[in-house]
Amino acid sequence: MKTKPSFGSRFGTIAAVGGSVVGLGNIWRFPYLTGENGGAAFILIYLSVSFLIAVPTMIAEFSIGRHAMRNPMRSFKKLAPNTGWIYLGFAGVLTGLMIITFYSVLGGWAVEFLRFSYLDAFKGKSAPEVAAFFTAFTQNGWTVALYSGIFVLATFAIVATGVEKGIERFNKVLMPLLVIILLALVFYSTTLSGFKDGIRFLLKPDFSKVGFSTVLAAAGQAFFSMSLGMGAMITYGNYIRKKDNLKKVAGTVAVVDFSIALLAGFVVFPAVFSFGIEPQSGPKLVFITLPNLFQQMPGGYWLSIAFFILLILAAVTSSISLFEVIARYIQEEFRQTRMRASIITGGMVLAASTVCALSMVDHSSIRIFGENIFDLFDYLTTTFMMPLGALFTVLFVAWFWKGKGFEEEVTNRGHINHRFFVMLRFVLRYLVPLVLGALFIDLLLF
Ligand code: PHE
């Protein structure tokens, strides 16, 4: 058997997977979704879904990747030859392309906010003025496209030159740093007038507004935040050492992912209630909230610069894993060199993110079903494509994967207690399909 490169230690594995998992999903998407879905009840549902559904799905994806040692499409081809499962790999590539399109625009926003922080552009602005500033800047479609382009180029440069391994070393330092800044922000939040209201919002559940759609939103968020349902974790499974315990890797990653999202919530909501910002502000929530916080904080100028640098880096390490899925597909299926595959991918992503940035301008003629591309792709990928991708992956692993491959991966060829495998298989066979199936039926019928 060919020996392929793998991560050097369990901590290295977690840092690398963490690079993909921790990103704008935690700091941008989790708070805005929590705001839209009423706070604490959503968080509780999100927590349950993360551990009951997303962690098992992650173990399933790791197993496929570590067993087949191929890109997602070829993995399905190898494990289930001459079947339609290969299209699941292809669907993942498409999903990745759609996510990276709006993700790059978001990354561009973060780059622009770094520049604003450096220029102290929010100095003396009230909360409504910051919000107006944000709206005005998204209306400069070409400027946003330019900054998104910088973000795409950074991702491209890293993937094309293959220095991701070096980045993983960085991750071990960067992620803890990001957590430290978030903690400092939470600490400062305790002095804000809206602290109590913020905490109440995050901790006191009101289940009256919870329905199937809330659960589906939570599931979509869990898959997005843990990079599931589109092949990224199958790819990362290729690099996990045979002796590592997949359950522990997935569990640790989930704890880290959830903790960072929750921290982001604890930063955002006290500020939201202090500055009179609407919790249901949608995707712009974090961007219109944080500048107010930095404005008031002692040392806020430097902290905001550090924060946006780290946010961009966390976003780039996630974007790399999206880019990688697409580039590897092009490289292997169309027999291109890594460089050419990266250039083709980079070109496509650049074009798509430009169109996406332009479609966000008011009265832009670029609309699909009346929606701009950012909102549409954010919605389609997290509501349909990732949950569906996850559902089919789980069905494949639990019902259609012939032979003992899955069992071997979960038990490390019998070295790990068999009981967990039996439990996991049960969850993957019945619980996950049932829950996801019910959510889809509800979505389609009601
Ligand atoms: N998990 C990443 C984040 O939270 C986004 C992502 C989704 C990355 C899917 C790869 C694949 O920002």
Describe the structure using short key phrases:
446 residues, mainly alpha, 18 helices, 0% strand, binds phenylalanine
What does this structure look like?
- This protein has 18 helices and no strands.
- It is an all-alpha fold and 446 residues long.
- α5 (86-119) packs antiparallel against α16 (373-400), α7 (141-161) packs across α14 (300-333) and α16 (373-400) packs across α18.
- The structure holds phenylalanine.
- Phenylalanine binds next to α1, α2, α10 and α14.
- The site of phenylalanine has 15 residues, from α1, α2, α10 and α14.
SSE arrangement:
Elements: H1 10-21, H2 24-36, H3 40-68, H4 72-79, H5 86-119, H6 127-138, H7 141-161, H8 164-189, H9 195-203, H10 212-225, H11 232-237, H12 246-274, H13 285-296, H14 300-333, H15 338-359, H16 373-400, H17 405-410, H18 418-445
- SSE arrangement, N to C: HHHHHHHHHHHHHHHHHH
Largest sheet: none
Give the rounded overall mean pLDDT: 92
* Global structural class: mainly alpha
Number of strands: 0
The share of residues in extended strands comes to: under 5%
Q: Which spans of ≥5 residues are poorly predicted at pLDDT below 50?
A: none
Shape: globular
The distinct ligands, each listed once, are: phenylalanine
Structural Rg: 21 Å
Give the termini distance in whole angstroms: 51 Å
Helix count, DSSP H or I runs of 4 or more residues: 18
Q: Helicity, in percent?
A: over 70%
